[in-house]
Amino acid sequence: MKAKLEKIQASALADLHKVKTAAALEEWHVQYLGRKQGQMTEIMKSLGSLSIEEKREMGPKANETKKQLDAAYDSKKSELESSAGGGIDVTLPPTMPPQGHVHLVTQTIRDITDIFKRIGFTRVRHPEVEWDQYAFEGLNMPQGHPARDDWETFFITPEEATGKSMLLTPHTSNGQVREMEKGQLPIRMINISKCYRRQADVTHTQMFHQFEGLYIDENVSIQHLKGVMDYFAKSFFGPKREIRLRPFHFKFTEPSFEIDITCGLCYGKGCKFCKEGWVELGGSGMVHPNVLKAGKVPAGYSGFAFGWGVERVA
Ligand code: DAH
Question: In terms of C-beta density within 10 A (0-12 exposed, 13-18 middle, 19 or more buried), how is residue 188 classed?
């Protein structure tokens, strides 16, 4: 038995030296230390049938050899893991930290676009460097009209010089005239873009965003306007919010309204933030006949429009 043990020890160590892969290592383990037919395991099992004297001699020797082979197996295993295959590959790209999120204005523009898309409004884009004709003239605000002053406009060429001045869009309403001019009816558009005004203080920036809606079809009434505004307010702010139409004046709509929404803190009861329960959202109204005329919309068609601030709703 002694000779057999020594033979196993020698061949196991020699074979282990030749092992180059994890699969070969496992084969080696089965052959020598495997629980069922491993050669070393067989030796350990047969110790039980030896005489007491033989046991005294062989017991410690066999144990020692078993320990030696176990240790050799462990060290070969970690050697293989750290060279190829397992372990840490420092050349792999690392797990990147979270990337943050899109800008709040971008997110809001996407939300607004989705909400209006569901009721058939298509997002359109129009120039932000624009002719006076589209930003004012076609919206029933002729040259020199005092109503223009409310828009604090950046004119690129002098306002009154040619009657064809160029400017930075102070609102998105230019999109109304440009859509009507295309001559395709009905119109269901949502124009979202940057607006520029000569205003800079704690509540105003010189560049901000608006979204402008225009719906023109046969027999469009204030009921449609109210329904769409209510649908948007509930989709964007939540089903518990109510809106109201407050009479106002814009040159390009008749009648005109400011749309208010119940306060999100007190739901219309009145609180420190809203005072009377309502918060202003933006302008709206039935498209003025002069604007329909400027846009060459045929008789029998009517429509409503609205223009709200993206930052404001956000
Ligand atoms: N253009 C207006 C503004 O900048 C907002 C507005 C009001 C747009 C009424 C509209 C409208 O289309 O019907 O304050």
Answer: middle
> Which residue numbers in the chain have pLDDT < 50?
none
Which pLDDT does position 86 carry in this prediction?
Answer: 56
> Within its chain, how far is the Cα of 6 from the centroid?
69
Determine the distance separating the centroid of ligand 1 and the alpha carbon of 125, expressed in angstroms: 17
Closest residue by Cα to residue 242 from 228, 212, 262: 262
State in Å: Cα 37 to ligand 1 middle: 88
Pocket test for ligand 1, best of 172, 220, 284 (most atoms within 8 A of CB): 284
Q: Write down the pTM of the prediction.
A: 0.70
Q: What is the spatial distance between Cα 107 and Cα 4, in angstroms, rounded to a whole number?
A: 77
pLDDT value of position 197: 97
Torsion sign over Cα 201, 206, 209, 215: positive
* Residue bearing the CA closest to ligand 1, atom 5: 307
Q: Which atom of ligand 1 is nearest to the CA of 287?
A: 13
Give CB contacts under 8 A, 24+ apart, made by 51-55: 54/1
Query: Long-range contact list for 21-27, CB < 8 A, 24+ apart?
Result: 21/80, 22/77, 22/80, 22/81, 22/85, 22/86, 25/73, 25/76, 25/77, 25/80
Q: Report residue 18 CA to chain centroid gap.
A: 56
Helix (H) or strand (E) holding 293: helix 289-294
Residue 93 confidence (pLDDT): 86
> Does 305 sit in the ligand 1 pocket, CB within 6 Å?
yes
Give 23-65 pLDDT, tens digit per residue.
999 999 999 999 988 999 999 999 989 899 988 999 999 999 9
